[in-house]
Design a protein that fits this description.
The protein has ten helices and 17 strands. By secondary structure, the protein is an alpha/beta fold. The protein folds into two domains: 374 residues, 3-Layer(aba) Sandwich (Alkaline Phosphatase, subunit A); 85 residues, Arylsulfatase, C-terminal domain (2-Layer Sandwich). Strand 5 and strand 6 form a beta hairpin.
Length: 490
């Protein structure tokens, strides 16, 4: 039997409460619901980080991002490559296993740009690898951009450098921008200052990605003897949510952001319809997930009574569950029992080892050390085995947590992200962190830190053993102090 094709579709800032197959009432997601009916729906899947660049790094490399120099926040559009040269990626491992590999959409893992003075854009801006404040006006866009997906294992790439709210405002195909960003952006919608190409429109970005993804499928179908891996990374529903194509406006009862979730579901539908039309469905694995938790409101400040992260506490950037618990749907006809639900603990970095095993490939020694194959879960009618016992999470501002069995320990007080309070200094005699029973209290409403000192000691010990070789406690405290609201109490 020929190796199965592999498709990974990634949303940007979509929460577990945004999908109707996870209980959303104000947003209908029929195409993702169909994948849930035809395959497996995971209820305890997590991103390694509550924000996009580190989460995407983990998916592509199978390792935690805090093992790199990026210890908090995200890269900007002109930041250097985060994936180290020579590091095996999911794409490069699958390519070695005989797969054609294509990336379409948002990259957000860094690129190498050249300035008009001939020098490469600095690896750090004001000492920061994120390149905060670098607007790209000094970049020579006629020079190929390097260090991107094609040098990290993909045969082709069509996409954008970062999120829709950061420059450059243009598409990139392989190593070239499509057009030259030559004038300042006409209108800013909660976006950073930068240059655009003529005719650039945010509302056309994801529809273009969908068209390009379908075109890649059509090209691959012409040589059905060679399996393919397609990575489609949407821009939706990330801001600016108010810039969306007309055909999705008003399709939900959850405002502009809800309509952007609908847009992402439409993209999933475009891909799945093409897979069926091309006769590829029976031998294609399709996985759909998101890079981190959702924000709470639309751009007008309203939530319309919709809970983007369901019953879970917190939002994007937070170390609480809403920041990193993700929807995960996987379909594989004839292999994954249809309509099944899995409540086992899964990390999105596990897709690396899982796809590699499905492809019959091999992970090189020393690579993807934090990825565990969940193939045994996929092939079970009632998944009861545990492929992993523990998982580490990282907030947008660098607070750590560790989940082991039904316990979740947070190394600090506050959300560590965007929800107030961000960080709190413990009062004398007060708990130094948080401990929750994820089985009986998934809403994280009862802090059990002082009631279970043995559990705290065990989990803190495991967290220290994992993290401290890369990121010591002094560094964690320095990072907490970077936030001006550090120590603020609710």
């Amino acid at each position: 039997m020929r190796k199965p094709n592999l498709i990974l579709i990634l949303a940007d800032d979509m929460g577990i409460g945004d999908l109707s197959c996870y209980g959303a009432k104000k947003i209908m997601t029929p195409h993702m619901d169909a994948i849930a009916r035809n395959g497996m729906r995971f209820t305890d899947a997590h991103a390694t980080a509550a924000i996009c660049t580190p989460s995407r790094y983990s998916i592509m490399t199978g390792r935690y991002c805090w093992k790199t120099p990026l210890h908090h926040s995200v890269l900007r559009g002109f930041a250097p490559p985060l994936i180290e040269k020579g590091r095996p990626t999911l794409a490069s491992v699958l390519k070695r296993a005989g797969y054609r590999t294509a990336a379409v959409g948002k990259w957000h893992l860094g690129l190498e740009w050249t300035q008009k003075d001939g020098r490469t854009v600095p690896e750090t801006v004001n000492g920061d690898i994120r390149a905060l404040g670098y607007d790209g006006f000094a970049v020579d866009y006629s020079i190929p951009v390097t260090g991107g997906p094609r040098e990290r294992g993909f045969d082709s790439w069509f996409g954008i450098a970062g999120s829709l709210d950061m420059p450059p405002y243009c598409f990139i195909e392989n190593e070239r921008t499509l057009g030259i960003p030559s004038r300042e952006k006409e209108t800013y919608y909660n976006q950073s200052r930068g240059l655009q190409v003529d005719g650039y429109r945010e509302e056309e970005v994801d529809t273009t990605f969908a068209d390009k993804a379908v075109a890649r499928l059509e090209a691959c179908a012409q040589d059905a003897d060679i399996p393919f891996f397609l990575y489609l990374a949407a821009a939706a529903p990330h801001v600016p949510c108010n810039r969306r194509p007309g055909f999705v406006i008003g399709k939900t009862a959850a405002g502009d952001r809800g309509d952007m979730v609908y847009l992402f579901d439409w993209m999933v539908g475009q891909v799945t319809a093409a897979v069926r039309r091309l006769g590829l469905e029976d031998n294609t694995v399709i996985a759909v997930t998101s890079d981190n938790g959702a924000v709470s409101r639309c751009e007008n400040g309203e939530d319309y009574g919709h809970r983007s992260n369901g019953r879970f506490r917190g939002y994007k950037r937070d170390v609480w569950e809403g920041g990193h618990r993700e929807p995960l749907l996987i379909q594989w006809p004839g292999i994954i029992p249809a309509g099944t639900t899995c409540d086992r603990l899964v990390g999105l970095q596990d897709l690396f080892a899982t796809f590699t095993e499905i492809a019959g490939g091999a992970i090189p020694p020393g690579a993807a050390e934090d990825s565990v194959s969940i193939l045994p879960l996929l092939t079970a009618a009632q998944p009861r085995c545990a492929c992993r016992r523990s998982l580490i999470h990282h907030s947008g501002n660098g607070m750590f947590s560790i989940r082991k069995d039904h316990w979740k320990l947070i190394d600090g007080l506050g959300s560590g992200g965007a929800t107030e309070p961000l960080f709190l200094r413990p009062e004398p005699g007060e708990a130094a962190g948080q401990l929750y029973d994820s089985l009986n209290d998934p809403e994280e409403s009862i802090d059990l830190w002082n009631r279970h000192p043995g559990v705290v000691a065990e989990l803190m010990g495991e967290l220290d053993r994992e993290v401290c070789p890369y990121f010591d406690r002094k560094g964690i405290e320095v990072m907490r102090a970077l936030d001006p609201r550090h120590g603020q109490r609710a």
